[in-house]
Amino acid sequence: MSEPAANPAATSFPAPTISLPLGLEVLRTYSGALVCLEILFGCLVWILVASSNVPVPLLQGWVMFVSVTTFLLSSTYLTLLITGLADRINTDWNFLDVFYHFIALLFYFAAFVLEAATTAANGGASIKPLTSINASVLCITPPRGNIFTVLTYRQYSINVVATIFAFFVTLCYGCSLVMGFKRWRK
């Protein structure tokens, strides 16, 4: 008995679908530049929040989780594109690009809002040592709102800058989502 002929459709896989160039050429595209900015600004958010000693862990824990996770995922994605390994993994990279940037945009928008809430909850409260008397007494100015955090001036300043960079990262992920969606729909 002769063996049946192998069905070519059953033994071969479709080629991966990717519209971005592979290798260092990806860095010359807007998408590659945006991924680099996502990594850079995301790393800055991570460093800034960590350097503020995370005074409000309930809110800033999510910011740390999002910034570290998206930093690692974006770095892995860029590494796959630069090394050309994305061409060896049979999947629809255009869809994964859109899906990843959508999830990252949602997570980073939430992180931006929580970081801004942490900063705004300070509400003008400040801690100043009273130097007019010899005892070590701190004067806490009451904030304007119902919910407040007591941040030192250094923590407040770092959180303001972290909020600004979190906004920039959110914009980068939004732009990457739009460009990825255009590539995916072609």
Automatic annotation (TrEMBL):
Cellular component annotations (GO), alphabetically ordered: membrane
Ranges of residues in domain MARVEL: 26-185
A Pfam entry, by short name: MARVEL
InterPro entries linked to this entry: MAL, Marvel, MARVEL-CKLF_proteins
GO MF annotations, alphabetized: structural constituent of myelin sheath
Record keywords: Membrane, Transmembrane, Transmembrane helix
PROSITE patterns in alphabetical order: MARVEL (PS51225)
Cell compartment(s), UniProt: Membrane
Membrane topology category: Multi-pass membrane protein
Example of a GO biological process term: myelination
PANTHER family associated with the record: MARVEL-CONTAINING POTENTIAL LIPID RAFT-ASSOCIATED PROTEIN, PROTEIN MAL2
Protein name (record): MARVEL domain-containing protein
Organism in which the protein naturally occurs: Iconisemion striatum
Gene: Nfu_g_1_001734
